[in-house]
Structure formats: structure tokens, C-alpha cells
Design brief:
With about 575 residues, the protein is of the alpha+beta class. It contains 14 helices and 18 strands.
Length: about 575
């Protein structure tokens, strides 16, 4: 947080009486004789409040969950009845809404009881799978970073059904509701904007412009509270696939509290209520020392800290570093954005404000520097150094847009620093230059217009899966041309550890080539100097060679070379390079 400025009444300071500034809000309870013991006791209560925030809002760490295995496997055919379906994810998951459903061969529901989580990562859905035919599962879970994960899986008992009725129902149930997702993002964007303004405006009044009170406090508190409540309900609807009316059921509202965002939202609501009472009790305009400024500012920051505990930061290792830096990022954003709004409102009041503008300019520069540093770290953690992750994922493109928008504010800030701040600092109370003040308001308004879009992009980022989880390879399916025909190579799941490998060789007519007698395969790479990883392949039908579980030892770029033999004298080679992901943990 930006350092508070301790001032005493005198030349260059603003009037101490907030009632001389028309339209400023805040209920004053004068406490001019506040003692040091009283300050220490109040500060201790604030620190205890922060401990409560961490205890209530910080769950166990996890990341964006990715399905890595299913039993029965997708599109697998099994003999005999199936009593349960098991879906294993790479990270911890939460099942809070009963969103997993299974349809049998005749299109009727066959899930037999509620789904459960085994070992923190495996979704277990009991079913009555005795009938012969196709079964389809629709699943919905919540990952450790608060994002809902949904999908569908199909398997067959004995043989595939003649129709797709069960598959159609599963696909429909697992589809997302775009309108709910958009409404959820809008609600979170409104709440975030209100919280940023509240925190920044309080810091501005208490630390940068002593003797003033933050304005628009009540509307901002109401917007923040309503926005968080609506986002709580919409998050449940989004995760469970419910309509808003279904989400209003008590069991759904209660279940949402077990999710990452639900837990964070409840803590935010409590802290917003505490902040409203705090600002009712405290007369910000009487703040004079750094202790008093900190006492006022810390409760205003608390809801933003709880916000950080409901998103990507709580699910990204190392949490001990990622979470505090994300909180610092939010505080810096609040100081900058909320302070800009407060500065525009202050400039509408009569009097010389040069000293305040100079202090604000220094604090804003520190806030922007903090934003850039913490933002770069977060981008590196969630995206890495991959241009593919930056340019080809929604998360990466949103980060790129946000960076360009922030860059667009820099010329306005530079012009303010070079032209308007010196002119205003030289003003006296009886010789105010309307032109320089008008330019400052216009430049600040321009910054705010751009930053409003940045807040919207940030709200979208919060509900977008990180780039690394989106770009993580699931399998390799590559078609390579041969001199006669083509070769198809499948490596599943294309991660460190055991991989199932299939090679299909087709002739010039596009049919599997029965004349192929042998296929050999070698791997090179992984960044570890491996020159010849032997990958034995066994014949599994005409033109089809496979290995059920070959271990690929390292992640990174690998080059696979295949030799296709037809008898003794006909041999064709093919090779290609692909990426092998990290091991599932």
C-alpha cells in the first residue's frame, strides 16, 4: 500500500473541515482526543480481522482440473454390467451440486445415487449399467481455482446402441449456458470496480488528501454487496447447469459455500458489512497521522484481499508467494483507479490542490510500478514463456489486451506529470488556473476510461482457465505422408510416464495396408540428451501396430522417427517433432 502522508495544517494543505466541500459523504463522529492505546486496540482488531479472512477464504491449493483417465474409458466397450463410472482428474475437485448424470441405452437416467469424490481427485458416479448398449455420462465439477469443469463421456456394454439418444442427452447436459457465463462476468466486474473504488478512495482521503472525506461511499458499498451476492448465485448456476430459479434453492445456495469462489464471496460480504460500519464510525476527514490513516485504510482493503483468495492465486504454486503478490496487485490497482476517481472529484471543489496532486502523482507512480511487477510475475506463472500459450489461448489473449490497455494510459500519465502537475503545484488559493485544472481532469478521465475496460478484462480473466492448463497437450494425433500412402501416429496422453501408442499405415487408396510387416519407432529429445529411446511396437491388426504403456521419461520437445517395412526390401522412414507435457500429479 502506498505510504500515508503525515501533514499538519498550514501552507499548501487542504481545508480540514469536510463540511465546506459540497456533496461529500460520510457520517462524522468527532474523536479529536483519540489516544494511542485506543489506536493500538483498534489496529489489533483489524489484524485479527485479517486472520479471519485467511482462515475462512484460503482453501487447500489446487489448479485448473483436467480429466486424465476414465473407467470405463471414453468409447470403450466392456463385457458385463457396470456398477460405477470413475473419472480421475489431475488436481483436487469439488462436487457440490449433483451435476453428474448418466443416461442408459433407452435414454433414461441410470445414475444410482449421488456422485462422490474419492481421494480428492477421482469422481465416482454409481450407476445401474446392466442393460446392453450405449451409456453416456455428463459431469460437472469445480476445480481448485474455482472454475467449473464439465464434459461428457461415452461407453458401451456389449455393443454400441443403434441410436445416439443417450449421447445427445449427455452432450446437452454438459453444454454451458453462455448467458449465465456473461452475466456472471458482468456481476463480478461491477463488484470488482466498486471494491477498487472504495479502497482507493479511502486511501486517497486518509493518506493523500488529509482533511477530506471519500465520496460516493454508500453507492459503492451497495454495488459491491449486490455484485458479490449476484455473482455467488450465478457461479452456482454456472457450475451446476441450473437455471437461476433452481439456484435459489437452499441446498444449492448452501452447496456453493464449499466452492472456492463461494467461500471467498461469503467472506467478502462479511468484510463489506464490517467496512460499512467502520466508515460509519470513523470520521476520515479528521485523519492526521499515518497510524490513523492505516487504521482507516486497512479495513477498506480487506474485501480485496478476500477476492484474491477466490481466484487463480489460491490455486497456483507456490501459494505462499503467488497469493500475497496477487493481493499486492489488487491493492496497487485500487490505489491507482480509486485514487483517479477521487482526484477528479476533488478537482471540482474550489481551492488550490497543487500539493495534493503532487503527492498523488508520486503515489500513483509507485502503484503503477507495483502493478507492472506483480502483473509480470502472474503472467509468467500462468502463461510461462510460451508464445503459443500467449497467442492461442483465451487467457493469453486477454492478458495481452490488458497489457496493451495499460500501456495506452502511460502517455496520458506522462503528460500529466510534465504539464499539469507543475502548473497546479505553482497555484495559490487565490490564483487558480482553470485551463490547467481542466486539462488535468480531461487527462485523468481518459485514463479512467481505459482503466474501466481493463477492469472488465480483469473480470473476464478471473473466470478464464489459465493458459498453461488450456495449452497442456492431451494427446498427439499426427498424420505423416509416406512415399506410398500415409502413416497416422497416436500418443496418448502425450505426457511424461506411461503412454499408449498406436501406428496406422494406410495405402494410396486410404485403406489400412495389409502388406506392412513391421514398424519400428525411436524417440530423441526431452532436453536431456536422449538419442535413441527404443519404442517396441506389436502388430495389432492389418496396418496397425501398438504398444500399451511405453514410458516417456522427460517433458519437452521430442522427435519420433518411424521405419515402415514391407517385406525385406521395401522400407520407408517418417519423422516429426512434438511436445510431451509434464507428468500428472
Amino acid at each position: 500500500m502506498a505510504p500515508c502522508v503525515s501533514t499538519t495544517p498550514g501552507a499548501g494543505s487542504e481545508p480540514a473541515n469536510p463540511r465546506k466541500r459540497g456533496g461529500q459523504q460520510g457520517v462524522s463522529v468527532p474523536r479529536p482526543n483519540r489516544t494511542q492505546p485506543g489506536l493500538r486496540a483498534a489496529l489489533l482488531r483489524v489484524l485479527v480481522l485479517f486472520v479471519v479472512v485467511f482462515a475462512a477464504a484460503v482453501p487447500s491449493a489446487g489448479a485448473h482440473a483436467v480429466l486424465i483417465d476414465s473407467q470405463p474409458g471414453d468409447e470403450a466397450t466392456v463385457d458385463g454390467s457396470v456398477r460405477e463410472v470413475r473419472l480421475k482428474f489431475n488436481e483436487s475437485i469439488v462436487v457440490a451440486f449433483g451435476g453428474s448424470k448418466v443416461w442408459g441405452p433407452d435414454g433414461s437416467r441410470v445414475d444410482d445415487g449421488d456422485a462422490s469424490v474419492e481421494g480428492g481427485r477421482t469422481l465416482v458416479v454409481p450407476i445401474d449399467g446392466a442393460a446392453r448398449g450405449t451409456y453416456a455420462l455428463s459431469y460437472r465439477i469445480v476445480s481448485g481455482d474455482g472454475h467449473p469443469v464439465r464434459g461428457a463421456s461415452t461407453f458401451h456394454v456389449g455393443a454400441r446402441s443403434g441410436d445416439t439418444v443417450s449421447e445427445d442427452k449427455a452432450r446437452a447436459a454438459s453444454a454451458g449456458n453462455r448467458s449465465v457465463e456473461v452475466a456472471f462476468g458482468v456481476a463480478r466486474g461491477i463488484a470488482l470496480a466498486a471494491l477498487l473504488y472504495l479502497a482507493g478512495a479511502v486511501v486517497f482521503a486518509a493518506c493523500i488528501a488529509p482533511g477530506t472525506s471519500p465520496r460516493w461511499v454508500v453507492p459503492a458499498l451497495v454495488l459491491a454487496f449486490v455484485g458479490v451476492v449476484v455473482s455467488y448465485l450465478l457461479d452456482a448456476a454456472n457450475a451446476a447447469g441450473f437455471s437461476l430459479a433452481e439456484t435459489l434453492r437452499w441446498d444449492v445456495v448452501r452447496a456453493e459455500a464449499s466452492t472456492t469462489w463461494g467461500r471467498s464471496a461469503l467472506v467478502q460480504l462479511g468484510l463489506i458489512a464490517v467496512l460499512a460500519l467502520w466508515l460509519r464510525m470513523i470520521d476520515v476527514a479528521r485523519v492526521r497521522t499515518w497510524r490513523q490513516g492505516a487504521l482507516v485504510a486497512l479495513p477498506a482493503m480487506a474485501p480485496l484481499l478476500a477476492w484474491s483468495a477466490g481466484g487463480h492465486a489460491i490455486a497456483t504454486k507456490p501459494v505462499w508467494l503467488r497469493l500475497p503478490l496477487d493481493m499486492l496487485h489488487m491493492v496497487a490497482a485500487a490505489v491507482w483507479i480509486g485514487g483517479l476517481v477521487a482526484l477528479i472529484l476533488l478537482m471540482r471543489a474550489p481551492g488550490a490542490h497543487g500539493a495534493t496532486v503532487r503527492r498523488w502523482s508520486r503515489v500513483a507512480m509507485a502503484a503503477v510500478g507495483t502493478l507492472v511487477a506483480t502483473g509480470l510475475y502472474a503472467s509468467f506463472i500462468e502463461i510461462g514463456l510460451s508464445w503459443e500459450a500467449l497467442s492461442e489461448t483465451t487467457y493469453g489473449r486477454l492478458v495481452l489486451i490488458k497489457a496493451l490497455l495499460l500501456l495506452a494510459t502511460m502517455p496520458l500519465a506522462w503528460l500529466n506529470q510534465r504539464r499539469n502537475v507543475p502548473a497546479l503545484e505553482a497555484e495559490a488559493a487565490d490564483s487558480v488556473d482553470p485551463a490547467s485544472r481542466g486539462r488535468l481532469r480531461r487527462y485523468v478521465a481518459g485514463e479512467l476510461a481505459i482503466l474501466a475496460v481493463v477492469v472488465g478484462v480483469t473480470a473476464a480473466l478471473i473466470q478464464t482457465p489459465p493458459a498453461k492448463s488450456s495449452i497442456q497437450p492431451k494427446l498427439v494425433d499426427k498424420v505423416i505422408p509416406l512415399r506410398t500412402g500415409e502413416l497416422q501416429l497416436v500418443v496418448d496422453p502425450a505426457r511424461v510416464g506411461a503412454n499408449e501408442i498406436h501406428v496406422y499405415v494406410s495405402n494410396e487408396r486410404g485403406r489400412l495396408d495389409e502388406t506392412v510387416t513391421n514398424v519400428t519407432m525411436r524417440g530423441k529429445g526431452g532436453g536431456k540428451g536422449i538419442e535413441g529411446l527404443e519404442i517396441p511396437l506389436l502388430p495389432s491388426g492389418p496396418g496397425h501396430f501398438t504398444t500399451p504403456a511405453k514410458t516417456i521419461p522427460f517433458a519437452g520437445s521430442w522427435t519420433f522417427t518411424l521405419q515402415v517395412e514391407r517385406g525385406t526390401f521395401d522400407s520407408q522412414a517418417a519423422s516429426f517433432t512434438t511436445s510431451i507435457g509434464k507428468a500428472d500429479t
